[in-house]
Structure formats: C-alpha cells, structure tokens
Amino acid sequence: MARPDFIVNISKLTRAIEQRGFGLPMILGTSGDRPYTLYNSISEVAGHFGIHTKEYRIAQRIFGQNPSPPQVAVFSILPDPEDNLADLLLESVNEVVETHDDWYYLTCTENTEEVVRALGGWAETQIKTYWTTTQDLGLVKSLEYENTIVMYHDNPHAYVAEGLVSTAATNDPGSLTFKFKGVQGVTAADIRSTDLTELHRGGGFSYIRKKGLLQTTEGTVTTGEYIDLVMAGHWIKVRMEEEAALLAVNTKKIHYDSRGIAKLVSVVDKVLHMAGRMGIIRVDDDGSLVYRISYLRREEVLRNDVANRVYNGIRWEIEIAGAIHSGTISGYFVI
After folding, report:
1. DSSP letter at 165?
2. How far apart are CA 240 and CA 272, in angstroms?
3. Is 129 helix (H, G, I), strand (E, B) or coil?
4. CA nearest 133: which of 113, 158, 169?
5. pLDDT tens, residue by residue, 67-118
6. Helices 227-250 + 258-277 axis angle, to 10
7. Strand 34-39 to strand 72-76: parallel, antiparallel, or no bridges (unpaired)?
8. Which ranges in the chain belong to alpha helices (H)?
9. SS3 206
10. Could you tell me which residues are beta bridge partners of residue 213?
11. What is the pLDDT at residue 10?
C-alpha cells in the first residue's frame, strides 16, 4: 500500500477510508490452490471447497450469524508437507494484500502456535485485525499483539472467534463492546473458572453459559486492550487520512496560512463528529461530544517545515465513551 501523504498517529491514554474494509472478513486457507475470491453465500463456498473443509466451516460460522456480512473473501493454498506452514501462510497473506487490500478481518484455517505468532506479528504491522480460536490455554499468555484476538474453545470446530467477526463486520467500528456477545451455532466451552481467570489475565477470552445465556466472557486483544478501542483507532486513522487526501485533491492548494490550516482542522473536526455519532466519544451531560483540537499558527511552525511544505501542528484529544462491563447495584428495605 502506498504511504499516505497525511499520516494520523494515535496514542491511547487508556488501558483497564471508507467503510469498505471494515466490513469484509478474509479466510486464509490450506485446502486447495484457490485465488482470492469474494463469496456471497455459504453455498458458493461449498461449491468451491466442499462441505468438509475448514474454509467451509469458518465461512459457515461467519455467514451463520444474524446479521452476517454480505461477503466473505477466501484465499487458499495447497502447502507441501515439507514446507514451513507458518512461513508459507505469512508469504501468502503478504501476496494477497499486495493486490486485494479491501478486507479488515483476517481468519485462518490453521491455529498452531507458530501460525498464530506469524499472523499475529503480521497483523501488528497493518491496519487490520486477526481473529483465531485456540485449544491451547497457555498460548495467549505469551502473546502481546494489539491487533490480535484469541478466544479459547475446547472444540476445534467451534470457530467462535471467527463467528464473532460477523458481529464486528456488521457494526460500526468502536460502536459496541465484544463482551456479552452470542455466537450462533457454538456451545459453551469446557473451561474451569480458574483457567478462565488466567485466560483473561493473558488478554484472551472464551465462551460460556452465564445466567442461562451463552456469551463471550470478555472482549480484548492479547495486550489486554479492548477490541472496540483498537478498531475505533483504526477507523479514525483511516477516515482522517482519507478526508485529508480528499481535501488535497479537491483544493487548488492548501495554503500555508490560517485559511489552509483551518481547512485541515475542519477535516479533523468532521471525522471526530462522525466518531461521536458512532458511539466512540463520550457525551457530556449537555449532550456535547467531549473532544479537543489544538493547532499551531504558521508563525509558530519551524521555518524549515514551512519551506518543505510540511505541517505537523494539529493535535486532538478525545474522551472515549467506553462501556460498562460490571458493577454493583445496592438496594435497601425501609420501614
């Protein structure tokens, strides 16, 4: 992907483009030599891969949710037994992204430790997320990837994280929490409470029945950050870069004075308003979005930057809306 002229850097002070890519999952498979293809239904996937392949089972889990994304992309290879599978899959995903970069959710038919590390490391360098289900309770402890989501389920055919992708792909980035979510077609994982606690400490989560309802036990990436915050950051970055690029293309020139700086500030303000409507930014008691934008006047910018036509003077800060995951409600009987 070409480096954008306007780059947005985001630092999240918290821990405890268009919409196209944020709605499309991709399955990276190993059942056959198949080029990158968009499928509109599970029957189309069955026609190419059959109903006994892992590609089909993951696609079935994604398409089996309500709602589900309108399309799923699949790219499959046929590895040689002597190949290093993790390296081969890494080469394959790099190959795909060179020509087809309009997807955001990476899933894979293989979930060995080596593969998860390779694809998790790759996702860390991208504006994409990687979702996988593991049967190894200890795996997540050694992972520190902010763009990787790992769920535990003892059934290798559960594909619960892959099914959760449908929830992500059919909602605005950052608009919902991934805790308390159901995944249709998946039964509860067999996991002890002590193991679940350790899993959460490592940045993973699982799927259990609680108060009679099947639900995800958390909603974090492997660093412990919340998925919705990671996706919100990705969305703001991509959208802001796109809006800045549109401004540059549709303007004779962005003047290096108060007029041009105001136009760039308006781009930031526009995107943050959009983020607010999506539920990313906190709303105060008066109904106003809580964010701040500051900028440098031309006179405050280094002369060398002015000469090189570089402006790094805009800073913005938002207060995230967050989500309530637990709490205590107190009641009293009064005589």
Report:
1. H
2. 9
3. strand
4. 158
5. 999 999 999 999 988 889 999 999 999 999 999 999 999 999 999 999 999 9
6. 140
7. antiparallel
8. 42-49, 54-63, 85-99, 113-123, 160-169, 193-201, 227-250, 258-277, 303-307
9. coil
10. 210
11. 64
